[in-house]
Structure formats: C-alpha cells, structure tokens
Design goal:
Length: 462
C-alpha cells in the first residue's frame, strides 16, 4: 500500500487538531454533547461528507458518509466528557478549571482522530476512484450511556462490513483486552412519609429499603461468578431531613459480567434482592432499565491487519518537551500508582500483537458494534505510562501537542487498515467468516426496545 495517501492527515492537521481542541474546551457529558456534535457535523459537511443526524432518535448521534457501494467501512467517533474532571490546560498538577466536566477519558482526541481517519479514507476513495463507502459515526454517550448499544439495537451499524476505532491510553497496541457486558438499572422504592420522632410507626422508609438492598447485594458478591462486578450509587436518598421518614429513594446499579447471558442472570438476582428489601420494609419496589452493553467480540483477522498497519506507519516518537511534561505528570501524581515509569514516562514503542487476548474489567459500547460486524481498535500512548483512566491527569494530557501526535498516528493507522480492507476483498471475507463463527447464534441487543437514552445528569433530585 502506498502510505503517501495518508499525508492528507498532516495536511488537514489544523482542522483535525482544531476539532480535538474545540471538544476539549467545550466538554459535555453523555447525550448532552450538542456543541461537540455540531462541530464535527460541520467539519464533515465542509469536507464533503453527507451528514445524517438524529440516528436512532438520539439528538447527538450522527453519521457522515462518502462514497458508494461495497465495502462499507465504519469509523467510530466518541466525544463525550466526564463530570467533575475539568482541569487547567498545560498544568502537571491538579487544578480544576471551573468547568463542570472534562475530557478525562480523552474522547476529544478519539472523536477528532477517527474523523481524521474518515477524511483520509475519503481522500483515498476520491483519488483512486475505487468503489467503497466510508461512514464516520458520531457516537454519543459512551460514558455511562452506551450510546452505541442504542444505535446497534436500532440497526444503525447493520450496513457495515467492518468497523474501526481507537482509544487514548498509555501504550501503543491493538486492543486485546476483554470488556464486560453490563446493565445499568435504577431501583426505586416508595414508602410512606411520617414524623420520624412522633409517629415513626406510621412511616415506611424507602431509604431503609435502599440500604437493605445494598446490604443484600453485598452478601450476593460471595456467591456470584468470578469476573462479575456490581457497583451502586444512591442518587436519591429521600431528602435531607432526618426527622422525616423518607417516602421515596432511588439507587442506580451498574451490574457487570464477562458474558451477555451472565449479566442477565445477575440482574435477575439483584431484582430479587430489591423485592426482598421492599418486603422487609413494607415499601414498594420498581425498577427502570437504563442501558446495557455487550461483552467484546475480538476479531483476530482485523487486529492482525491493524497491528501491521501501525507498524508500517511507525509510532511517533516523543520530543524532549513531550517527555518533560509526561515526566512532570509522573513525578507529581503517578508515583503512588503501580508501574509508573519515571525513566521512560511515555511507552510509545509499539507492543507487537501476539494473538492473545487478556482479561479486562471495564466495559465499552464498542462491544455492541463488535457483535454486528468485524471490529478492531487500537490504543495510543497519549498519556504518561500508568495514567489512570477517568482522571484529571488524563484530561490535561488530552490537550497536549503529544496527544495530538498520537491522535494523528491513530488516524493514519485506522485509515490504512480501512484501505487494506477495501483493496483486499479476501481479507475482509476472512474477517467476516471469523466474526460469524465468534458470534454464534448472533447479536441480541442488551437494551430492550422502547428504552430511550437518559442523560447522566438527569439522575437524582433536582
Ligand atoms: Zn473512553
């Protein structure tokens, strides 16, 4: 493959970097990413893509399409931020910048880098006149929202032959980590309010029910499968007055397990615990299914190709300034974190792919796309080694010149892989056959029909 076609990513550096910086400066949480979505849609239009908005009925989900015919290659872009992680730019110590949220998962780089890849694939299709279609998918609400799982449920990705994505991280490698299926469920209890001192016997406490439910769940932990996780947050305690028996309370659960069926089974057991808590307290339990996502389906054919493309392009080498900033971050805030590396704060050299997948205990909604079509992802080292995800350290490192160098490398690697898939039908065929074999009886969307995405900031008492 002639790699010179990828130079377009350097030629369009100002536009692509500009998107990353704009998203960083305008962070928005799940399903409220209006400015970010508008910005990317505008660039897609300017670059000659046909933009479709409101995918799956989600206001901030969109696509930009170029080309015609087969194959159809999707590039997934995320752009949502995390609450509470605003951070002053360029500072290697914690200093909130006054914003309600920040790009503590680097999705500003992710969204812009994937956009760069889509622009390069379009440039390739245009200059070669080859048949093929590239679609950039603007996927909102990855953080706690599983936007792609809603989109997958509604068939948004059904047109794809393959999908590509990347994520900022602290190593250069294709994604080989497993990720857990999850369900997010809001449990609600309704009781009876009463004067807590004068007539407590008339009250039925919803907050007691929440506490007993959480306790029941904590006993469940010993008797659930290895690798499962359950987390909860009490989002409505029933008010701030201890002298009132709380008549209503809500607790938000995130239930995870290695495989889709396992999370379903665990969810049913948690629902039983909620019923038990209601019975014990004389309250009424109900629940609302908020969202879910699937476990990950790796595709080794795709990963092998992505790995080769990354090696052919060559991971970028950090400059003295890039290293100095990463070292300052390490010195100031990573010294207590295992495996920090003060001598080589950026692990930029590519770790070759060896065909082995490793356990992982987070979740990603890219998983749902991985059930629909062959999917591969890469991780780029925009952060100092050992930087924790979802942290102020990651927010600040998502706005550095180094972060953008990594982003452009990711964009080139994804574009090169897409071009290989377009040029080698037998490669794509092999990836599809592997996919078919891995998904067994097929994709069962974890989110029931009729459930709509709910913004993260809509929980709790307003
Ligand atoms: Zn992320």
């Amino acid at each position: 493959m002639d790699l010179s076609v990828l130079n377009i990513i350097d030629e369009k550096k100002e536009i692509i970097d500009g998107v990353a910086d704009y998203l960083w400066a305008n962070p928005e949480t799940a399903f409220t990413e209006f400015k970010s979505a508008q910005k990317i849609c505008q660039v897609l239009r300017d670059e000659g893509f046909t933009v479709e908005e409101n995918l799956a009925g989600i206001a901030t989900a969109f696509s930009g399409t170029f080309g015609s015919g087969k194959p159809v290659i999707g590039v997934l872009g995320e752009f949502d931020a995390l609450s509470g992680l605003g951070q002053v730019e360029g500072l290697a110590e914690p200093m909130p910048n006054g914003q309600e949220c920040g790009h503590g998962c680097g999705h500003n780089l992710l969204g812009a880098g994937s956009l760069g890849a889509a622009i390069a694939i379009k440039h390739y299709l245009e200059t070669t006149g080859r048949e093929g279609t590239v679609i950039y998918f603007g996927c909102p609400g990855e953080e706690g929202g599983s936007g792609k799982a809603f989109m997958a449920r509604d068939g948004v990705f059904d047109c794809l032959d393959a999908a590509l994505c990347w994520h900022p991280g602290d190593i250069t490698r294709v994604r080989v980590k497993h990720s857990l299926a999850n369900y997010q469920v809001l449990y609600k209890f309704d009781g009876v309010a009463s004067h807590a001192g004068d007539k407590p016997y008339l009250g039925r406490s919803a907050l007691d029910a929440v506490e007993l439910m959480d306790m029941g769940t904590n006993y469940l932990r010993e008797h659930m499968i290895d690798g499962a996780r359950i987390h909860y947050a009490i989002v409505d305690t029933g008010g701030f007055s201890p002298n009132v028996v709380q008549a209503h309370a809500e607790v938000l659960y995130l239930i995870r397990a290695p495989h889709n069926q396992q999370v379903k089974e665990l969810y049913e057991r948690v629902c039983d615990i909620a019923k038990g808590a209601a019975l014990m307290t004389g309250t009424k339990a109900s629940h609302e299914f908020i969202k879910g996502c699937s476990s990950y389906v790796h595709n080794h054919t795709m990963l092998r190709q992505l790995d080769q493309c990354m090696a052919a392009i060559g991971a970028p080498e950090p400059s003295e300034e890039d290293l100095a900033f990463a070292k300052a971050i390490t010195e100031n805030s990573l010294m207590n974190i295992p495996n920090h590396d003060l001598e080589n704060p950026i692990h930029w050299q590519q770790i070759p792919y060896d065909g082995v997948t490793i356990p992982g205990f987070g979740s990603t909604d890219v998983s749902d796309v991985s059930w629909v079509c062959p999917t591969a992802e890469l991780s780029g080292p925009s952060n100092a080694f050992s930087t924790p995800g979802h942290s102020w350290q990651m927010t600040v490192q998502s706005k550095t010149p180094w972060g953008k160098k990594v982003m452009r490398f990711a964009a080139k690697s994804l574009a090169a892989t897409a071009i290989e898939l377009i040029e080698n039908p037998e490669l794509l065929q092999k990836a599809k056959e592997e996919h078919k074999q891995r998904i067994g009886s097929g994709y069962e969307p974890p989110i029931p029909q009729g459930i709509k995405p709910r913004p993260m900031n809509s929980f709790g008492r307003k």
